[in-house]
Write a structure and sequence with these properties.
Elements (H helix, E strand, L loop, with lengths): L9 H26 L6 H21 L9 H5 L26
Helix pairs in contact: 1-2
Length: 102
């Protein structure tokens, strides 16, 4: 198990529920096809999946990201400022390397 803390903001919660909601929607549509048939054939009800995906995307875009926890790996790696960089060495970098067909 990882030690990272997962984000619990509204936006990340909605994005985390996207796949389960789509799978449940597909399951319900197939169940309706088996029970009722006719009009509830999958070829007639597939737009419901597109609508569900659109609603989840819209809800995720409009949800608040207050309290969002950014990826800890990206925030811990910091590049030092130019003034903190290591001083230049007196030996210049080699311009040719052995085995390069000189």
């Amino acid at each position: 198990m990882s030690n990272s803390t997962s984000c619990r903001c509204s936006r990340c919660t909605i994005r985390g529920l996207r796949a389960p909601v789509i799978i449940v929607t597909i399951g319900v549509l197939f169940l309706l096809q088996q029970l009722a048939g006719g009009f509830f054939d999958f070829s007639n009800t597939y737009p419901v999946i597109i609508i569900v995906i659109g609603l989840l995307s819209l809800a995720g875009a409009l949800a608040s990201s207050e309290g969002h926890i950014a990826d800890t790996a990206a925030t811990t790696a910091q590049v030092p400022a130019a003034s903190e960089a290591a001083p230049a060495t007196q030996n210049p970098a080699p311009t040719s390397y052995s085995g390069q067909g000189q």
